Amino acid sequence: MDYITSAEMSKVWKISSRRISFLCSQGRVPGAEKKGKTWLIPKDAEKPIDPRKKKA
What we know:
Blueprint lengths: L2 E3 H8 L3 H9 L7 E3 L2 E5 L14
Antiparallel strand pairs: 1-3, 2-3
């Protein structure tokens, strides 16, 4: 499985790398692993739904 960092995924998902790190720490990104200080996220992972936003 190919992994990318939270900084690289932030460009794909168009959210901050800090927010991605928070989602990973909550277990909301399946397959994410922490190596040292860096979160490694599967390349094909889907962006979790943000419960803070209302549905239209």
